[in-house]
Design goal:
zinc, Znf_MYND, about 230 residues, globular, 9 helices, binds zinc ion, mainly alpha
Length: about 230
């Protein structure tokens, strides 16, 4: 299992963690919910089979996701402090000394992203904890054979921007294009993002971020016709 996408929830690694959180890794079962946590993120174009990807692009699906699925999960997470208890359970597992790749900490990050995706309530201590975790998590700007775990670089910026803009009750999209440098999405800046003309993958909120990030981006800026592997 590896990383197949740039941003949070685009890779099967992230998706596996979402599934494990939905099951009983934290000792808190959400599998019997009408919509599981994964229902908020499984529409990633990179992972979905073609027939599902078609459905995920329809206006009907977008409406259902925004008005039925996400509010349902938000309400579930907010009831009886369910989300808060999930954070407590995940945080309690972070000190495992055998966890060389900080997978437990990254799980708390993914849980935080799911909570923000739903617009669920996150208390101040957990928000701060999420900020404190970010620098402890491995982050790579492209595919590597070893050490390929944790954030892909735009995913980290995307996560930090989501924390900055977090408001309870407001669902945060992690599928929307985000600036590869600062992580902001269209909703944050009030205009569409620019796309790197060479690779057609990287997106930026403006010329400044694009220029600032070029040295890091140039190694993975490959035109579509020249990409040899899907894994980024
Ligand atoms: Zn930016
Ligand atoms: Zn590029």
């Amino acid at each position: 299992m590896g990383r197949w996408g740039w941003r949070l929830f685009e890779g099967d690694q992230d998706f596996d963690i979402v599934i494990s959180i939905s099951d009983d890794t934290l000792g808190i079962k959400t599998g019997q919910w009408e919509y599981r946590l994964s229902a908020m993120v499984h529409q990633s174009d990179m992972l979905a089979p073609p027939e599902a990807a078609v459905v995920y692009r329809t206006a009907e699906y977008a409406y259902e996701l925004a008005n039925v699925i996400v509010p349902y999960i938000r309400q579930k997470l907010n009831t009886s402090n369910f989300g808060e208890r999930m954070f407590a359970a995940s945080r309690a597992k972070e000190s495992d000394p055998d966890d060389l790749f900080q997978e437990s900490k990254y799980r708390t990050i993914i849980l935080g992203a799911l909570m923000m995706r739903a617009g669920a309530r996150i208390n101040t201590a957990d928000l701060q904890h999420l900020r404190d975790l970010v620098p402890q998590i491995n982050c790579t700007s492209r595919h590597t054979l070893f050490n390929d775990h944790g954030f892909r670089a735009p995913g980290r910026a995307q996560f930090l921007a989501a924390l900055d803009h977090y408001r309870p009750g407001v669902a945060r999209s992690f599928q929307a294009p985000s600036c590869f440098k600062c992580g902001n999405i269209e909703e944050d800046i009030g205009r569409k993002l620019l796309q790197c003309k060479k690779c057609i993958v990287a997106t930026y909120c403006g010329k400044d971020c694009q220029r600032d990030q070029w040295r890091e981006h140039r190694v993975s800026c490959i035109p579509p016709g020249q990409r040899r592997m899907l894994n980024v």
